[in-house]
């Protein structure tokens, strides 16, 4: 239970993650803003329409990601997720995107129509709560 609670706490406060994609056997990693919907168990990210990562998503819907470590070294890592385009807009999810990243509100005002929203779906996560404190959990 400690690791499930840690997962929820980390995902609640995390504003950025490192996303790993792969296309034509070439890996690519980038840092992105995100938010986690605790009720639905979905990570949402926004990206510019027609960006290179949208082509990567279309070519290979299997992704991995990790939250950026908190000062105490706590993080969540997912190695087997599926990405799909969301039916939501950035405006639908504005509160989620701006909760841990208030600067996104200015970006949304200026460039909101240029964004698409994607969802990350997964059933397992590796939760690190500190040095030598790591466990895989099923959600």
Automatic annotation (TrEMBL):
Residues 11-130 form the Pyridoxamine 5'-phosphate oxidase-like domain. Pfam families: Putative_PNPOx_2. Coiled coil: none annotated. This is Pyridoxamine 5'-phosphate oxidase-like domain-containing protein. InterPro entries: Putative_PNPOx_2, Split_barrel_FMN-bd.
């Amino acid at each position: 239970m400690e690791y499930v609670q840690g997962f929820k706490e980390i995902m609640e406060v995390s504003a950025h993650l490192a996303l790993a994609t792969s296309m034509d056997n070439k890996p690519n990693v980038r840092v992105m803003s995100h938010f986690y919907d605790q009720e639905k168990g979905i990570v949402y990210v926004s990206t510019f329409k027609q960006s290179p990562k949208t082509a990567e998503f279309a070519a290979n819907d299997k992704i991995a990601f990790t939250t950026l470590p908190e000062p105490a070294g706590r993080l969540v890592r997912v190695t087997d997720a599926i990405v799909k385009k969301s039916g939501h807009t950035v405006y639908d999810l504005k509160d989620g995107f701006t909760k841990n990243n208030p600067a996104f509100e200015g970006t949304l005002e200026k460039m909101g129509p240029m964004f698409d929203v994607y969802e990350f779906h997964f059933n397992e996560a590796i939760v690190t709560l500190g040095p030598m404190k790591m466990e895989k959990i099923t959600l």
